[in-house]
């Protein structure tokens, strides 16, 4: 039995798929006006671990992740500057060039973090008609009204509005901004925005209401029900999506189709830096490229993220990341000496599943993994159990388990030379050679029976 925490019901629930053996999973994906930062990537790693855990449990998962390539406004109140336009001005490119460039960058990060690619990555700009159709349906059902700058969802018309955040409309309104322009109430949100008069946009489309572009939330409602039927099983995103983006997605889908969008809504907590928010203006926001420039293996970041439960904040520091990198190196080194997989290790498999199936307790699962590694069962049994665990961890251990370290000829020559100078007790030269070997990426350790090499 698998238990997952459902934001909608505010409790851990036994997961029951809509169709036996299958799971429809929609994960809110990236906006593509800039590189994903490691906070964004934490939320995608959470979705990846969820997907892999469901697969370990035997489900056939269909995962959809949207790419938000349509410009949207910088704040939740449908105002502020358009991030896509900011990027175009910064880089002197068209909106479509920006979107393509950062979509490719995102997919590269997905690869480097060993995130399993979604089965479908629908792009908002390729689904304008689906979004227009849903707005049309909302209008027919009496949930939409038009102002001078767009078409809005009337949140007062949907009795259940606010249920994802667990607030009534009145409670939501009490916390909302006062300046609402022509909107009927502060919680109403844009379904379609008209292009501002006299401004030519790269991304604008004809619609029954006038030339413009979709509101921020409609793409996820329209595309999720296109690629997964409504309701589907699980919808994920970052915790900041609960009160606005997902509340509004759910409202749109319910308003248009009369059904719930998804049964289970799951949200990953934030990655913080120095206990606070990450932000470009704060200068504490890192990308995978920047980690790689600092010689960090992206999989070490994956290990670091898995060390915390997805519903707890995780504070990023380079020291903690380094500790994760060291643990990973130690693990890779240890498993090289193991024999290839044989039967056994079931006790650890069971403990591992118990941890993960309890709302994805990856920290506990990692502890079980180290118990396995340190245990005295046969190494072939360890190998089998570890590789099964790694189907969820995604550390790529299949390249290490039972695979002897291949040392290049030039490094072997240095090692041999070093053994020679040690016999003649030339310690200075021996130390020099150790440094040279280190520069080539290997650490020498001197043991009674000769020297042993491991990867830096
Ligand atoms: P965006 O590209 O801005 O739409 O963000 C992509 C995802 O990252 C969303 O699911 C956000 O909720 C999530 N997110 C943004 N900042 C953080 C953070 N500091 N830690 C974890 N997730 C984040
Ligand atoms: Zn979304």
User: In terms of per-residue confidence, which ranges show pLDDT below 50 for 5 or more consecutive residues?
Assistant: none
Helix count equals: 15
**Structural class, from secondary structure content?**
alpha/beta
Order of strands, main sheet, comes to 4-3-9-10
Order of helices and strands: EEEHEHHHEEHEEHEHEEHHEHHHHHHEE
Helical content band: 40-55%
- Mean pLDDT reading: 93
Into which percentage range does the β-strand content fall? 5-15%
Outline of this structure?
With 456 residues, the protein is an alpha/beta fold. It has 15 helices and 14 strands.
Structure, described:
It contains 15 helices and 14 strands. It is elongated and about 90 Å long. The chain has a four-stranded parallel β-sheet, sandwiched between helices. A four-stranded antiparallel β-sheet has the order 5-6-7-8, covered by helices on one side. It has helices at residues 38-56, 83-91, 95-112, 128-140, 169-175, 218-227, 242-257, 288-293, 298-306, 318-336, 346-356, 362-374, 379-393, 409-423, 427-439; strands spanning 3-6, 11-14, 22-27, 60-65, 144-146, 150-153, 189-194, 212-214, 232-238, 262-268, 271-273, 314-316, 442-447, 450-455. The longest helix has 19 residues, at 38-56. Helix 11 (346-356) runs antiparallel to helix 12 (362-374). It is of the alpha/beta class. Adenosine monophosphate is lined by residues 28, 30-31, 39-40, 42-43, 237-238, 240-241, 270-271, 278.
Give the SSE layout:
Blueprint: E1 3-6, E2 11-14, E3 22-27, H1 38-56, E4 60-65, H2 83-91, H3 95-112, H4 128-140, E5 144-146, E6 150-153, H5 169-175, E7 189-194, E8 212-214, H6 218-227, E9 232-238, H7 242-257, E10 262-268, E11 271-273, H8 288-293, H9 298-306, E12 314-316, H10 318-336, H11 346-356, H12 362-374, H13 379-393, H14 409-423, H15 427-439, E13 442-447, E14 450-455
Helix pairs in contact: 1-13, 4-6, 4-7, 6-7, 9-10, 11-12, 12-13, 14-15
The structure holds adenosine monophosphate and zinc ion.
């Amino acid at each position: 039995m698998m238990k997952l925490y459902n934001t909608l019901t505010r409790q851990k629930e036994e997961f029951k798929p809509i169709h036996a053996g299958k799971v429809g999973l929609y994960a809110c994906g990236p906006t593509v006006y800039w590189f994903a930062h490691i906070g964004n990537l934490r939320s995608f790693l959470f979705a990846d671990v969820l997907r892999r855990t469901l697969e370990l449990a035997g489900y056939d998962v269909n995962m959809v992740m949207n790419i938000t390539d349509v410009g949207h406004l910088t704040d939740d109140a449908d105002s502020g500057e358009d991030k896509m336009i900011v990027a175009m001005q910064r880089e002197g490119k068209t909106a479509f060039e920006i979107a393509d460039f950062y979509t490719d960058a995102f997919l590269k990060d997905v690869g480097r973090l060993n995130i399993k690619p979604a089965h479908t990555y629908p792009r908002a700009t390729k689904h304008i008609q689906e979004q227009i159709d849903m707005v049309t349906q909302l209008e027919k059902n009496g949930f939409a009204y038009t102002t001078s700058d767009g078409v809005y969802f009337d949140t007062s018309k949907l009795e259940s509005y606010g249920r994802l955040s667990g607030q009534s409309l009145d409670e939501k309104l009490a916390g909302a901004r006062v300046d609402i322009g022509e909107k009927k109430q502060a919680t109403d949100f844009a379904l379609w925005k008209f292009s501002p008069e006299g401004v030519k946009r790269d991304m604008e489309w004809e619609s029954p209401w006038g030339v413009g572009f979709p509101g921020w939330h409609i793409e996820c409602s329209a595309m999720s029900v296109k690629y997964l039927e409504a309701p589907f099983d699980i919808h994920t995103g970052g915790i900041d999506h609960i009160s606005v983006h997902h509340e509004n997605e759910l409202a749109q889908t319910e308003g248009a189709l009369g059904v719930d969008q998804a049964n289970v809504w799951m949200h990953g907590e934030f990655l913080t830096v120095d206990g606070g928010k990450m932000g470009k203006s704060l200068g504490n926001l890192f990308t995978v490229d920047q980690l790689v420039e600092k010689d960090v293996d992206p999989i070490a970041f994956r290990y670091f993220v898995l060390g915390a439960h997805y519903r707890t904040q995780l504070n990023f520091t380079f020291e903690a990341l380094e500790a994760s990198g060291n643990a990973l190196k130690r693990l890779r080194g240890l498993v090289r000496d193991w024999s290839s997989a044989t039967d056994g290790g079931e006790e650890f498999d069971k403990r591992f599943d118990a941890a993960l199936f309890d709302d994805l307790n990856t920290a506990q699962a990692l502890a079980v993994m180290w118990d396995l590694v340190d245990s005295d069962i046969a190494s072939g049994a360890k190998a089998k159990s570890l590789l099964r665990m790694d189907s969820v961890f995604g550390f790529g251990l299949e390249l290490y388990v039972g695979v002897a370290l291949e040392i290049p000829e030039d490094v072997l020559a240095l090692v041999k030379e070093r053994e020679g100078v040690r016999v003649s007790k030339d310690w200075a030269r021996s130390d020099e050679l150790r440094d040279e070997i280190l520069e080539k990426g290997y650490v020498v350790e001197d043991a009674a029976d000769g020297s042993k090499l491991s990867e830096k």
